[in-house]
Amino acid sequence: MPALMPVLDERLISAVKLSPKVSLGDDFTNLAEALPQIVWVISSAGLLEYSNKKWSEYTGLTTNESHGIAWTKVIHADDVEQSTKRWKEAFNKKTVYEIQYRLRRTDGVYRWHLTRVVPLKNRQGKVIKWLGTSTDIHDQIIESLDLERRKNEFISTASHELKTPITTIKGFSQILSEIFKNDKQASYYLSKMDNQINRITVLVNDLLDVSRIESGKLNLNYETFKIDNLVEEIAEDMQAQSLHHKIIVKSKTHVKIKADYFRLSQVMTNLISNAIKYSPKADKIVISAKELKNSIEVSIKDFGIGISKKNTERVFERFYQVENKIRQSFSGLGLGLHISQEIIKRHGGDIWVESIKGKGSIFKFRIPKQRMK
Amino acid sequence: MMKKRILVCDDDKGILEVMEIMLQTKGWEVKALSDGKGIIKKIQEFKPDLIFLDIWMPGINGKEIVLLLKKDSTTKNIPIIIVSALSDTEAIAKKAGANGHLGKPFEMNELFSIVEQYAN
Questions:
Q1: How far is A118 from chain B (nearest CA, A)?
Q2: Residue of A156, A157, A166, A168 to mutate when probing chain B, most B C-beta within 10 A
Q3: Measured between alpha carbons, how far is residue B3 from residues A119, A344, B100 in Å?
Q4: Contact between A350 and A288 (Cβ < 8 Å)
Q5: Which pLDDT band, with edges at 50, 70 and 90, does B108 fall under?
Q6: Residue A27: Cβ-neighbour burial (10 angstroms; 0-12, 13-18, 19+)
Q7: Cα torsion through A183, A184, A185, A189, rounded to 10
Q8: What tens digit of pLDDT does each residue of B54-83 get?
């Protein structure tokens, strides 16, 4: 049942009389009593008029005991606010109400239910009654949570296991590079091989991070450092990997912050490599940092393909990639921005993008200078 | 000058071989162990200047090894570097009481600079 009828007040509750005046028809009540789900009917004023046997069997409450708002006590305390808010919206808009919440069984155990309430309207569009059902979906919910947990565990183990052979391959390729350091051609092939190994490493790390995010295990290790040092270090590293783009660090803050150096490096690396990836015809990337009252803001600007307005929010979604049509030319798992957003959020900050399609994008993030309590 | 003595402990034989070859190219003396069995005794005998230790070892956990080594007066001053494929190797190493960390996969130069920094 929807939580707390919006039009109820104490006088109304005490004035309400159940069933006698309600004519639901034999067919309806016979059907409702036969169903394995909880079935009930609410008046146009938002008051409970009927509940089937299943309700009484499940909750241990008789129809009279469930009367008024008495039945709301069987909704889990954590679910009351959300279900009330949603029911008020549906009631005012006269639309279908659908929600999942936990209902207390007669033995005190809470089980997840899917509740649906449909307005029954007359020809003039006026609501005469609300017909509702609550279906026990507890086992499915538990199973899907368990499946999610096992999926995350699998990704975590698989990524860890993948790193072992990657380490060995990378190691032997570096040993070969040392042996063939005077052979130009062999060195060139081996450097190509090393680049690809690094690419696999990034993909595996991203999968590992996503599984950590999903299972709430992405922890931050705070330390104090100058944001300028981090920006410069990453800009230098990325410059070494990019032949076509000049990476320009435009402004500095001279500010020390308390944050996770490794994770912020990951965000910076991700934003700069995206800037390079999505601006194949441009020749520069501009990075700037500025100090605000309690936070610092870093921006990475490219002059590439840009993102349409409707997609600027979606780019941070897991597995999302800009314009799937051209997915072929922009490889990757679509995890980088999702991970970056999560890292910034964990710092108590914010990340967003300003973009004009065809002109380029500016990715910006802000984080507090001090650790958030 | 005395040769640096380095002990590497990892249950993956491929990684063990890679690290052994890399470290030997520098002329350092390397002992490779593929499990934690009798590790304390072997360390006491070999007397390494530095230990590279995988955090996940069959039989004995890397953290337990660090704890045992740091308790023993004959081994407590040997620097220990935790090697791991987990993304938060640094935090794991700190928590375990190790001296440093090396994430898998690693660059050869990273391995060498750790040896130069810690093995004296």
A1: 49
A2: A168
A3: 85, 46, 21
A4: no
A5: very high
A6: exposed
A7: 100
A8: 987 777 788 888 998 999 888 999 999 999
What is the per-residue pLDDT across A8-35, written as a single tens digit (0 to 9) for each? 333 333 334 444 444 567 788 888 888 9
Judge whether residue A115 has pLDDT over 90: yes
DSSP 8-state assignment for residue A309: G
Q: Percentage of residues in chain A with pLDDT exceeding 70?
A: 88
Tokens 């001296």 identify what position? B99
- What is the Cα–Cα distance from A207 to B89, expressed in whole angstroms? 16
**CB within 8 Å of A158: residues ≥ 6 apart:** A207
Buried residues in A252-284 as b, exposed as e (16+ CB within 10 A): ebeeebebbbbbbebbbbbbbbbbbbbbeebee
Under a CB-based contact definition with an 8 Å cutoff, are residues A178 and A194 in contact?
Answer: no
| Residue to substitute from A161, A167, A237, interface B, most B β-carbons within 10 A | A167
Side chain identity at A2, as an amino acid letter?
A: P
Tokens of B73: 């007066």
Distance from CA of B74 to the nearest CA of A (A): 32
How far away is chain A from the Cα of B42, in angstroms, using its nearest Cα?
25
B54, closest residue in chain A (CA to CA): A164
Which chain A residues touch B if contact means CB-CB below 8 Å?
A: 160, 163-168, 170-172, 174-175, 178, 197, 201, 205, 208-209, 212, 219, 221, 262
pLDDT, tens digit (0-9, with 9 covering 90-100), for A215-266: 787 888 888 999 999 999 999 989 987 888 999 999 888 899 999 998 999 9
Crossing angle (nearest 10°) for helices A138-179 and B108-118: 80
ipTM passes above 0.95: no
**Facing B105 at nearest CB: one of A167, A175, A178:** A167
Q: What are phi and psi of A318, to 5 degrees?
A: -65, 135
Strand order in the sheet with B50-54: B29-33, B5-9, B50-54, B80-84, B100-103
Contact A167 B107 (CB under 8 A): no
How does pLDDT run across A152-186, given as a tens digit for each residue? 788 878 888 899 999 999 999 999 999 999 999 99
